[in-house]
Design brief:
This protein is mostly helical and 301 residues long. It is 72% helix and 2% strand. Strands 1-2 form a two-stranded antiparallel ribbon. It is elongated and about 130 Å long.
Length: 301
């Protein structure tokens, strides 16, 4: 993005569409159905997962920072209940991701050599320790990048303890099965983003996964969905009552216009009858006057 476009985006985000005296570059307002409600709440998966392995492309609805700024200002005065639209959008997306996770696990069961319950438990122990190491290492690197060196070093000490536990768990797992089978890569599906993780993956590979944009993006989406679902039922009921009140007001207004129209029509007809009556009276008076005038003329003649 060029410097000009970056400056334009910043101004749109700060000042909204009103800065140029127009609705927006898309010629719509934020409450238009074509505008993405999840984008207005900073949780559209199309934005969060862009440039990742699961990039789902551009959102079919409009994303515009100026419209988001307009929405944030308007939301302070009026509740639009867009969190309900965002909840339904994210729920559909996460449900599809969970279906892929289930399908991936089913494929692994069909393709990988089946393990006994005892060996599978030992393999899971290795997986869990490896995941803890990867997550802790990613967190330590994040703290180091933020300048929190002491906190980062503390986590690195925890990583060393986890590595020792992982090494012991690997020895137990290795001794519980044939050597040829141990060399095979035992895969596991990540519960968060449905990516494949191997039992022989090194710490760097796991750290890149748990600290990567894809995994963190799914964490952000799932966290946002969890927050929105807490008040979903209450908010849904509130919107239902609000819609009923608005419908009642519209019906009353429509009924009032209908009654007003009927009254106006009756008034118009009454006026018309009155005018016709006056016209007939004037006609009769003119007729009588004409007759009397002619009779008087005949008398003097």
């Amino acid at each position: 993005m060029s410097a000009h476009n970056q400056m334009r985006a910043m101004l749109d985000q700060l000042m909204g569409t009103g800065r140029n005296g127009e609705t927006s570059r898309h010629q719509v307002q934020f409450n238009d159905p074509k505008v993405c409600k999840s984008f207005l709440l900073f949780c559209c998966p199309h934005d969060i997962l862009t440039l990742t392995r699961m990039d789902i492309g551009e959102c079919p609805k409009i994303h515009d920072n100026a419209l988001r700024s307009d929405f944030e200002k308007a939301q302070q005065k009026f509740d639009y209940y867009y969190d309900l639209d965002a909840t339904e959008h994210l729920q559909a997306f996460i449900s599809e991701c969970d279906r892929r996770t289930v399908a991936a696990r089913k494929r692994l069961l069909e393709t990988q050599e089946e393990l006994t319950a005892e060996v599978a438990e030992k393999a899971n122990a290795v997986h869990e320790l490896a995941e803890k190491i990867g997550k802790t290492l990613a967190k330590a690197e994040e703290l180091g990048a933020q300048g929190l060196v002491n906190d980062s070093l503390k986590l690195m000490g925890d990583i060393e303890d986890l590595r020792k536990k992982k090494s012991e768990a690997q020895d137990i797992y290795r001794n519980s099965m044939p050597k040829c089978s141990y060399q095979q890569q035992k895969l596991r599906v990540c519960d968060v983003c449905s990516a494949y993780l191997g039992i022989h993956d090194n710490d760097r590979r796991l750290s890149d996964h748990f600290g990567g944009k894809l995994h963190l993006g799914f964490i952000k989406i799932r966290k946002k969905l969890s927050e929105l679902k807490k008040n979903y039922e209450v908010r849904h009921e509130a919107r239902r009552k609000f819609d009923e009140q608005e419908r009642y007001k519209r019906d009353n207004k429509r009924s009032h216009r209908s009654r007003s129209g009927d009254q106006n029509e009756r008034y118009r007809r009454s006026r018309s009858r009155s005018c016709n009556s006056r016209h007939r009276s004037r006609s009769r008076r003119r007729s009588r006057t004409h007759k009397h005038g002619r009779r008087d003329r005949d008398r003097y003649r």
